[in-house]
């Protein structure tokens, strides 16, 4: 197995780098240059993420002035709270494998102003350029940027939202697409039981949403139901589709790297949209059939253990050089064991719950 990783060298003027470090929440990017494979690119740089901004190892958002291998924007994730470094990639690849639109990812070695920063996970930005690269129809894209994106009229604190599209940020599209998103939230909450199936099927690709739900339930991303996703409105079908984002707190860990029990989230999941859909027999049947197929084919130790081991093998030669990783080979072997054990235990748990679903 080839364990070579691409090297990215970013240079930021020391004055600009100092300004970036002094205000980790800065919204105005600084100018920089990225060099890789003997090519240089002008790029704007910002920190990204929420809790990660105050950590030693930062994550970065890179916006290119010209095309970067077909992309205009990429994200370099530190994966600082996930000792394994693989949970995010394992999740996004798993979603892609079960048929859910998901950003591509790959590992790189990052230098900043000549100083090695360690192993990073490069993520595609879910935007109009990704759609073009995948040969998908153009469409609007909204990111769920906080937990107000819970498909409800109320915040998680049970206060009335300021707007129907609270919790979302439009990445691409028009104000008309914002109105369509508001229509989705309105219909989820206020359509009558008799009208709901016809209305929701005219706004949402329900089958794809249920497939995404299978992925969230299997990987057990607690935040994934109310944020950590993007909505893509396909301009050809005029239906919303859903895509995962930021899945490091998965496979038996939370976003802070703490352990979560394999039965922490039930097969029903949660959020208002999921609850409404699963009230209807035809949607429950569709979800059950999709879950049964994934539990018997893709979400099994037999299928996923080689994937996990390949990722650990890929990163093994580079871990000791990462200045922010302080762990032994035995620690990483234990991480791999925990992930495989989680898959086995959660598969058994969900299979048992399906019997009474």
UniProtKB/TrEMBL annotation:
This is Spore coat protein H. It holds the Pfam family CotH. Keywords: Capsid protein, Virion. InterPro entries: Spore_coat_CotH_CotH2/3/7. It comes from Rossellomorea pakistanensis. The lineage of its organism: Bacteria, Bacillati, Bacillota, Bacilli, Bacillales.
């Amino acid at each position: 197995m080839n364990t070579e990783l691409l090297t990215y060298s970013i240079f930021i003027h020391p004055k600009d780098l100092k300004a970036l470090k002094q205000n980790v929440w800065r919204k105005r990017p600084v100018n920089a240059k990225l060099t890789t494979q003997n090519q240089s690119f002008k790029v704007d740089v910002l920190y990204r993420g929420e809790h990660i901004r105050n950590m030693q190892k930062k994550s970065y958002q890179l916006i290119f002035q010209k095309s970067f291998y077909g992309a205009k924007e990429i994200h370099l994730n530190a994966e600082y709270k996930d000792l394994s470094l693989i949970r995010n990639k394992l999740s996004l690849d798993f979603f892609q494998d079960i048929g859910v639109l998901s950003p591509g990812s790959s590992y790189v070695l990052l230098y900043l102003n000549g100083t090695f920063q360690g192993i990073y996970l490069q993520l595609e930005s879910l935007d109009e350029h990704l759609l073009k690269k995948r040969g998908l129809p153009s469409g609007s894209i909204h990111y769920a940027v906080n937990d107000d994106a819970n498909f409800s009229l109320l915040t998680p604190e049970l206060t009335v939202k300021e707007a129907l599209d609270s919790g979302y940020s439009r990445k691409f599209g028009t104000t008309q697409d914002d109105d369509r998103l508001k229509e989705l939230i309105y219909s989820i909450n206020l359509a009558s039981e008799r009208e709901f199936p016809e209305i929701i099927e005219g706004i949402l690709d329900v089958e794809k949403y249920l497939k995404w739900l299978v992925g969230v339930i299997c990987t057990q991303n607690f935040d994934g139901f109310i944020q950590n996703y993007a909505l893509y409105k396909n301009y050809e079908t005029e239906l919303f589709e859903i895509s995962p984002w930021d899945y490091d707190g998965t496979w038996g860990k939370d976003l802070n790297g703490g352990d979560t029990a394999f039965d922490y989230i039930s097969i029903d999941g949660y959020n208002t949209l999921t609850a409404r859909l699963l009230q209807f027999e035809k949607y429950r049947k569709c979800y059950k059939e999709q879950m049964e197929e994934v539990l018997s084919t893709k979400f099994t130790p037999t299928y996923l253990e080689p994937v996990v081991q390949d990722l650990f093998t890929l990163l093994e030669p580079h871990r000791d050089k990462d200045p922010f990783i302080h762990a032994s080979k035995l620690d990483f072997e234990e991480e791999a064991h925990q992930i495989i054990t989680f898959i086995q235990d959660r598969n058994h748990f969900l299979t048992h719950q399906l019997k009474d679903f």
